[in-house]
Amino acid sequence: MAAGMLRFYIDITSTFVIPLLTLFLMGVLTPVSRRSGLIGLLAGVLYGVARMLSPMIAESYGIAVLPPSLANSWAAYPFSMVVTAGTMIVVSLFAGWESRSTQLGQEHREDSPWLRDSLQKVQDLDHVHQDEDEKSDGASNRLPVVLAAVTFALGCVLTFVVLW
């Protein structure tokens, strides 16, 4: 915290938040194995912790734990994503990839009737909402886009006008 709150925030987000974001993105966008999630998350966090501690270890003991390019706070964001995603891909190569039906939550396991029933109820509700959307004039379809644009504009104003 001696370097300031912003520096601390940058270090913490590259250590914990980016591996978690990568875990979510890999789980949604790729068929990686479910088993790879925890292992990838731990690898990303381990890299982040090593990166955070490397300046202190180098100063105290004279040992460079990481090369300067990997120890840079700003470079830690993409490196953290690469470490997390790469680990998940390697684990999936050995553990196997998830099928598309498993990714979409459509596996109907006999040992979990609650999950099967819950998924069926959600799918039924989704079909009801799709039917309502087809009957509407399209105004409700634009609402999420408008809200996203307003949220983005408000975030830009707060970031670049108010806080700058």
State the main characteristics:
164 residues; mainly alpha
Any overview of this molecule?
- The chain is an all-alpha fold and 164 residues long.
- The protein has a domain at 5-100.
- Helix content is 77%, strand content 0%.
- It has helices at 5-29, 36-61, 68-71, 76-95, 100-103, 113-135, 139-162.
- α1 runs parallel beside α4.
- The longest helix has 26 residues, at 36-61.
- The mean pLDDT is 82.
Task: Give a summary of the structure in a few sentences.
It contains seven helices and no strands. With 164 residues, it is mainly alpha-helical.
Largest sheet composition: none
Number of helices: 7
How far apart the termini lie comes to 21 Å
If you compute it from the alpha carbons, what radius of gyration comes out, rounded to the nearest whole angstrom?
Answer: 22 Å
Identify low-pLDDT runs. none
Helicity range? over 70%
Shape: flat
Task: Describe the SSE topology.
Layout: H1 5-29, H2 36-61, H3 68-71, H4 76-95, H5 100-103, H6 113-135, H7 139-162
